[in-house]
Amino acid sequence: MKFIRFLKESFQIVIRGSKRYYLWLAFLFILILWGGSGYILQLKQGLLVTNMRDSVSWGFYIGNFTFLVGVAAAAIMLVIPAYIYNWKPLKEVVIFGELLAISAVIMCILFVIVDVGNPLRLWHMVPLIGKLNIPASLLGWDSLVLSLYFLLNVVVVSYLLNTLFYKREINNSKLTPLILLSIPIAIGIHTVTAFLYNGFAGRPYWNSALLAPKFLASAFCSGPAVLIILFQILKKTTTFEIKQEAIWKIAELMAYAMFINLFFFGAEVFKEVYSNTEHLVHLKYLFIGVGENRDIVMYGWLSLIISVIAFLLFLIPATRKNVVTLNIGAILIWMGVYIEKGIALLTPGFTPDTLGQIYIYRPSAIEVKVSVAIFAIGFLIFTMMTKIAIAIIFEDFNIDSLRRKKALPAES
Amino acid sequence: MSVKKTVLSPNKLNRRNFLKAAAVTSSTAALAACGSKEAREEFLQRDFRSLSQDQIAKVLQRLETQYEREYGVKFTVSAKEPIPETFFGYALDISRCIGCRKCVYACVEENNQTLEPQMHWIQVLEMEKEKGVDFLHSNLYYDHEEVPHEGHFYLPVQCQQCKNPPCVKACPVGATWATEDGIVVVDYNWCIGCRSCMAACPYGARHYNWGKIQLEAENINPDTHYLGNRPRYKGAVEKCTFCIQRVREGRYPKCVEVCPVGARKFGNLLDKDSEIRYILENKRVLILKEELNTQPKFYYFYGT
């Protein structure tokens, strides 16, 4: 019952806000409606309205899905040092990392739903009710670990906020095992997503043992990058506070992760270029083009160059600690990984296809529209949850303050 | 009272036993409660392999009515089971194939493949004689006045009916599997349309219904099999089934029949006296991408 009271009070926080807050919500709602109309068209006409075809059978949706799995997994980036090493400045921001993870997982699930041709049949995937094909199917596993990760984060965050709201002691003997469990599962969601690609023996571009480690390294960059940007925005627009040294610490860890990411990339390039087998063609498609087809070459180089610049910005202490260069670095990393996961990972894996044919894939307007709507939904959920968390942590929103204000009778 | 009874759909569902009562979540029931009885049955239909004989009969009947209404042609949908002691294999004579694509279009008609965007279960690749079997330098879209084109040979590729099929592994809902007679089939009513199998297939043999199925009434083949050439759905995957509707009746696949140069051979691998066994024993055969250990039952050979 107490939890329901907490939810009710939180709902009041969500629906009340400044003019700027309402404008932001209205903006998101407009994007959701605009993009949603694209999805309605897609439901009517089928995935024909996308530019995916038999040759390139996954595109922008699954690219976004892959990127967001990385963002979701990155919550562990903050949980590990905060809880294992008990590093105080980070501990208070962990909760926001987890809120980001929840929003990201919701977006992941939405991206899978819009990519599926028969969304009404998704119950076929539900264990016990449908017929989930595990252990064989990696997509089967992915759906399981993602749901588990989602539930775990929801439980941890609700518990933390609920406890803070009622000003009670946090019961570490209950919480710590859950948080410790969330670490392997966070690694799990990204590893399994990498294995999803990795397991296709017929797609040499993905069939490399480095894929999963590379996924983890890039997630350790992109997730915190998103967080650093969000923290700056929250700091400007709300009462949110964060110690500067926490941000520097995150940025330092990101520099190491980016180094590993770039090193893995170099190792793959060496293997393909030096052995020079026919498998090199996919990397060629990304960086120099095959024949006349140079469609994604620009993105290949862009992703690589901005990742290197960002790595340098985060590596050098002076630029890491300067607010301007720090934010530029975070945006560059975010862009770099987004292009890498959305375009550089997916498209060359399908091009040329298994029979050697080239189909040039570019997302259609509808694909972009639907994706915008999903991001807007994610931002909406994140905004609302963050508003509650900020109110509880920084704005003295709790049971005591409510009692004082409303002079409510004390609950038994 | 009678009105009330028809509204109480959960009773009906129980009676029909489409889902174990315990498994019906309130949300699926709510979803299923809207729409017609037919739509509800379709929505709640289990995967083909867990249907009883009675349930299969009902499904086939429902499909026949549905198809007739939609396409204006009387359909028969069979679910004929494998002939005992059969395990199908296919052999294609590369030295004979002239790249005329007669098989491609005969297959489209036989198997009711959608016309927009055009789907071809058979893809004929034109290859340079100098390079041998080399996909990267092959051309699917060749367009000459006359075939064969000088200096080139032709390699038709369709489902290789692997004994170790990567597509079956990839499917998250078990909507595709290899039957006892060695045909990899898809339950078009169970497929969710995630396209994992298409990413997994090393032969580009799986095709997707990107839009609504477009068929011309006068070209429809109404003799169909549930796991084969019955009209499919938007957002579901399909593929070559060795013409399951024909081969389980003891007939040849359409592409074998239609090939003007006799390049296509088909038969029962368990039958020692079959033509396919003769080819395997007396000709030099090759399989595509043998390094992937997919173990195709679709062999290529040089007959002359």
Largest sheet of chain A: none
Count of distinct structural domains of chain A: 2
Largest interface: A-B, 51 and 56 residues
| Secondary structure tally, helices of chain A | 16
In CATH, the architecture of the largest domain in chain B is: 2-Layer Sandwich
Oligomer: heterodimer
Mean pLDDT of chain A: 91
Number of helices of chain B: 11
Give helix % range of chain A.
over 70%
Our Rg estimate of chain A from Cα atoms comes to: 22 Å
First-to-last CA distance of chain B: 78 Å
Write down the overall mean pLDDT of chain B.
91
**Which structural class do you get from the secondary structure elements of chain B?**
alpha+beta
Biggest sheet descriptor of chain B:
4 strands, mixed
CATH domain topology of the largest domain in chain B? Alpha-Beta Plaits
The sequence of SSEs of chain B as H and E is HHHHHEEHEEHEEHEEEHHEHEE
Short description:
The complex is a heterodimer of chains A (412) and B (304). Chain A is mostly helical. Chain A is 74% helix and 0% strand.
Features:
heterodimer, A: about 400 residues, mainly alpha, 2 domains, 16 helices, about 75% helix, B: about 300 residues, alpha+beta, Alpha-Beta Plaits, two-stranded parallel sheet, disordered N terminus
Description:
The complex is a heterodimer of chains A (412) and B (304). With 412 residues, chain A is mainly alpha-helical. Chain A has 2 domains: 25-49 and 57-198 and 365-412, no CATH class; 220-363, no CATH class. Chain A is 74% helix and 0% strand. Chain A contains 16 helices and no strands. Chain A has helices at 2-15, 19-45, 60-73, 75-84, 88-115, 138-165, 172-198, 211-237, 244-275, 280-287, 297-315, 317-321, 323-344, 346-350, 365-394, 399-406. In chain A, helix 3 (60-73) crosses helix 13, helix 4 (75-84) runs antiparallel to helix 7 (172-198) and helix 5 crosses helix 6. The termini of chain A are close together. Chain B is α+β, with helices and mostly antiparallel strands and 304 residues long. Chain B folds into 2 domains: 1-44, no CATH class; 82-304, Alpha-Beta Plaits (2-Layer Sandwich). In chain B, 28% of the residues lie in helices and 15% in strands. Chain B is built from 11 helices and 12 strands. Chain B has helices spanning 2-7, 9-16, 26-33, 37-44, 53-71, 102-110, 166-170, 196-200, 244-247, 254-258, 275-282; strands at residues 76-78, 88-93, 123-128, 152-157, 176-178, 184-186, 207-208, 223-225, 237-238, 264-268, 285-286, 298-301. In chain B, the strands form 5 sheets. Chain B has a 4-stranded mixed sheet with strand order 10-2-12-11. The longest helix of chain B is centred in the first third of the chain and has 19 residues, at 53-71. Chain B is globular, with a radius of gyration of 21 Å. The termini of chain B are far apart. In chain B, 41% of the residues are buried. The model of chain B is unreliable at 1-27 (pLDDT under 50).
